[in-house]
Specification:
This is Dabb family protein. With about 110 residues, the protein is of the alpha+beta class. Helix content is about 35%, strand content about 35%.
């Protein structure tokens, strides 16, 4: 069997509403971090708060990055009931959302 040579990265940037409390944001982050355990096909996951000094975040405060072996795994994730329920939960709290997917060589 050939070794995996590429991974599909799925990057999600969130900016939360000023009306959302720290507890609301923490709950959104907690729920996002659970998705790799709930949805098959997630090869990697990490997240963090924006700490860039450049002032170019356009309202985004949090970055979440996932990796998938292929488009089919990513597409299954996007429509998985637990991902859909997560979206329903965070929708009232998120002001800005940006999503970018791109391919990288495995191990990068």
């Amino acid at each position: 069997m050939a070794a995996q040579t590429r991974l599909l990265r799925h990057v999600v940037l969130f900016g939360f509403k000023g009306s959302s409390t720290d507890a609301d944001v923490a709950e959104c982050v907690r729920r996002f971090a659970l998705l790799p355990q709930l949805v098959p096909g997630v090869a990697a996951f990490e997240w963090g708060r924006n700490v860039s000094p450049e002032g170019k975040a356009n309202g985004h405060t949090h970055c979440f990055q996932m990796a998938f072996a292929n488009e089919a795994d990513r597409d299954a994730y996007l429509t998985h009931p637990d991902h859909v329920a997560f979206g329903d939960h965070i929708r009232p709290h998120v002001e800005h959302v940006t999503v970018v997917d791109y391919w990288v060589a495995a191990g990068d």
